[in-house]
Amino acid sequence: MKPIFEPIDLDKWERRKYFDYFYHKIKTKYNLTKNIDITRLIEVKEEKGIKIYPTLLYLITRAVNRNKEFRISFNSEGVLGIWNYVNPAYTIFHDDDKTFSDVWSEYSENFAVFYANILTDMETYKDVKEIKARPDQPANFCLISSLPWLSFDGFGQDTFTESSLLFPFIRFGKYFEQDGRILLPLAVFINHAVADGYHTCKLINDIQYLSDHAEEWLTI
User: Fold this and answer.
1) Rounded CA gap, 179 and 86, in Å?
2) Which is catalytic among the residues 24, 192, 199, 213?
3) Helix (H, G, I), strand (E, B) or coil at 174
4) How far does Cα 172 stand from its chain's mean position?
5) Short-list 155, 165, 154, 160, CA closest to 195
6) What b-and-e string marks burial along 25-42, b requiring 16 or more CB atoms within 10 Å of the CB?
7) To the nearest 10°, the Cα dihedral for 78, 106, 53, 93?
8) Would you say the C-alpha torsion 114, 57, 169, 193 has a positive or negative sign?
9) Is 40:211 a contact under the CB 8 Å cutoff?
10) Whose CB has fewer CB within 10 Å in the chain, the N or C terminal residue?
11) What whole-number distance in Å separates Cα of residue 3 and Cα of residue 21?
């Protein structure tokens, strides 16, 4: 799929006043944490005999790509616009020295293609001990990280210096069983300039919907 960046017509953009307010005047970012019910997703995954990490990366990235608010960024010339899709930029863990690296993979709405891309890239860059293991990360990306050692109840994040990053930063933890259901802790870090509570709730609800209907897309 070819990445396309469409500049936003600020004079016609419904969010212009909100963007200006939260990006320039009151620079606001926020975190929201929710347990996602992945019971059906796990059932289908087990039937297929596939790995959980690439499956969760697909689940999240596909939901992000269903929402234009989370595909907004500045281009290299500082123009604000919307990408037609974003790629997952995710972490891999080096068990020998307990460090991590960032890797990115090309997105495809076809799960089998996406899954193969993730497995290939994880194998290719598994021994590269750099923060950015795969070079040439594209401008259209979504940050995703995993904390598989802990089923957290909440997650907070901040940066000391100002950043022009508008894409979401999404983390998920160790899934656990509760009342016969399998739950996945999920935390999203959002720039308020591009998304309000409604948009973030829709993103999380889209993730839940895709998990509940995993049999419709999890084919390999």
Assistant:
1) 35
2) 192
3) coil
4) 10
5) 165
6) eeeebbbbbbbbbbbbbb
7) -70
8) positive
9) yes
10) N
11) 29
Q: Per mean pLDDT, which range of 5-14, 89-98, 153-162, 205-214 is the poorest?
A: 153-162
Token pair belonging to 63: 């939901």
CA within 13 Å, CB half, 72: 21
Q: What is the pLDDT of residue 156?
A: 84
- Residue whose pair of structure tokens reads 């495809």 in the numeric block: 108
- Structure token pair of residue 54: 């690439």
The first and second tokens of residue 202, run together, are 């829709």
Catalytic residue list contains 24: no
Adjacent-strand bridge partners of 190: 30
Residue with tokens 């509570």: 197
Q: Where are the beta strands (DSSP E) in 25-140?
A: 29-37, 72-74, 80-83, 87-94, 99-104
Nearest 5°: phi and psi at 2?
-90, 125
| Structural contact between residues 164 and 137, judged by C-beta atoms closer than 8 angstroms | no
Give pTM, 2 decimals.
0.96
d(CA 116, CA 171): 22
Secondary structure (3-state) at 16: helix
What is the rounded distance in angstroms from the CA atom of residue 82 to the CA atom of residue 51? 31
User: pLDDT of 27-70, one tens digit each?
Assistant: 999 999 999 999 999 999 999 999 999 999 999 999 999 999 99
